[in-house]
Amino acid sequence: MYCPKKDVRLAVMILIPLLALLFLFIYGFIIWSLRVSFTDWNGILPDMTWVGFDNYKLLFSSQRFQTDLRNTFFFTIFFIAICIVGGFLLSYLLYSKLKGESFFRIIYLFPLSLSFVVTGVLWRWIFSPEVGLNSLLRMMGFKADFGWFTSTYSIGGFNVALIALIIAASWQYMGYTMAMFLAGLRGIPDQLIESAQIDGAGEFMIIRKVILPIIKPITFSAMIVLGHVSLKIFDLAYAMTGKGPAFVTDFPGLFMFETTFRGNHYAEGAAISIMMLLLVALVIVPYLYSTFREENR
Amino acid sequence: MRKRILITFLVFLTATTMMFAQGAAETKAKSNSLEIFSWWTAGGEAEGLQAMVDVFNKKYPDIEIINATVAGGAGTNAKAVLATRMQGGNPPDAFQVHAGHELIDTWVVADFMEPVTFILEENGWMDKFPSDVIDIISYKGEVYSIPVNIHRSNVMWYSPSLFKKFNLKVPNTLEEFFKVAEVFKANGIPALALGDNESWTETHLLESVILANTGAEKYRALWDGKISWNDSQVRKALSDYARMMAYTNRDHAALANMDAAGYVAEGKAAMNVMGDWAAGYYYSQGFKQGLDWDWAPAPGTKGNFIMLSDSFGLAKNAPNRDNVIKWLALCASKEGQDAFNPIKGSIPSRIDGDRSKYDAYLNAAMDDFATNAIVPSVAHGAAISEPWLTRINDIMSVFTTELNVDKAMKEFQAASDRYAPKN
After folding, report:
1. B387 contacts A242? CB cut-off 8 A
2. CB of B300 within 8 A of CB of B91?
3. In a 3-state reduction of DSSP, which class is residue B156?
4. Choosing a second label site near B72 at 20 to 30 A (CA), which of A3, A50, B63, B229?
5. What is the complex's ipTM, to 2 decimals?
6. Which CATH superfamily groups domain B164-305+386-419?
């Protein structure tokens, strides 16, 4: 692309105010948080005594944060897996010329228009051990005493209580991956499918060998979007379960909020925020890197 | 061309700066008003505050009251807003805060508050408050806040009909409690209703169990960091708490504190330990005392009164200092307290409240308040600082699930070492 020198200068000048604000209010405060996380600020007044990695050491030795990291890990894995698989199945159904396609498309997409707070309150009632699903099952004669999000069982570090949260979150985001996949499926040229059919490939074979490879970039983008939703999750857990007995449904975001704004542990809160930033960066940075590389090619 | 853009840009910059400057100037220039900051937005609380505001308006018609409330359970959101305003040098005139360490360790120690001893002294009210209460609201010999109300934490609510059905006596001690609980358990009824959706309710129960084991003196010493958590009576309290969990309702982790209190009145559970705002809840739901519910001091705590209190203080640099002082004097007066408390469902912090304005439960609570040993509540910020309290709530959340007394004891001790007052 050709740009005259004059235009470049003008562009830079117009961009400067925005960039300055951006750097101050985003990167400036990230650096500030980083600095606070190395101090002894545990009260209303800032205490900038340098304590090195003490806050991080405390954090990683606390049972709550360890549980948080495990919860985030399992929640992210299951949430992404269910949304991708479920979203693909839904979109494939619609793609296969299901009757009433536009109606179902709206139904599937609808939960996305709700906020996590609304979703949280809804599913909280459904999974509440004495009034929701359980009482329905009991009416039908089953012996339902699973505690859902209050259950304290744990299988190899996976807190069973998370199932309720995973279902709620997947319910909301499955429609979103469905829409992404549907757009991808619609973009596949019919000739490809037809030639595969002529070669004698069955439906399953076509999905595996033709469709999945073509929509791979979409799967990848969906995973990134879902990943950053789940790594930062706060509102759903806050509205639906809170931290739960022995932190079975706790996440770093909840911990950060409570320790900072209830306990005045500003330094510890900053340390948690930095850890959350690193978690998200682990996912986002490779993605950004690969997209930039593709664009430059 | 370039010049013109540069000029536009500069004009834009100056204009925005001026807008901000003007905004700051505007907030400063309110004349003769009084801003009251609280988290009283629900039912009886908001109406109680309004009743007190009405009394104030009658006395000082020319002062405009700005009622700044921030909604949100237990004041978490309000506290965050307050912290921002105080740190930014823009304090509200009068603000609500739990009396005791929540006020002192957060705000007084950080030098944000002015003492208010003179208000009590000038009006000759120092002896109108129990000396235990004065101790709780004082720091280095000065009073720092005016308590408008008193709530009691160590109350056991029970279902009279269930006790009658199994021909049982209401337990006075923890031993009696466990005996009674065994009978209820054998009959498939949860003896102790718990609603620990938020873990402060666990801490709330624990403070009564500790008091029952240690007595008032040692209870105070524990929260002053003067005795160890390895003390035999404190350990006994922790194991009693762990033992109690066997008698709770199965769905406790999904319930809020009022749901658990409701279980008792509905006859779904026999007993519940909760603060006396539960009485207000029962009245509002139409449950009858003596029929649906009744109360006794939490097992083993007879003769003791765990108190918590909402109070107002005087911030340094409050924009309308004189008006705040008038407001605080009203908060401390018999007139103000008797306007607020019957509606809020709490008792006055003064000992001379007008008995005829209060219902049966509150009158009984006033009797105990006048005669019992008064100790501060942990779960509600009177006995310990907020950093310590949030740690304790976290430990309780795990302890209630794992019931590991040794581990909890060690963690409580570590928290105490870190946060207990050092002097």
Report:
1. no
2. no
3. strand
4. B63
5. 0.85
6. Periplasmic binding protein-like II (3.40.190.10)
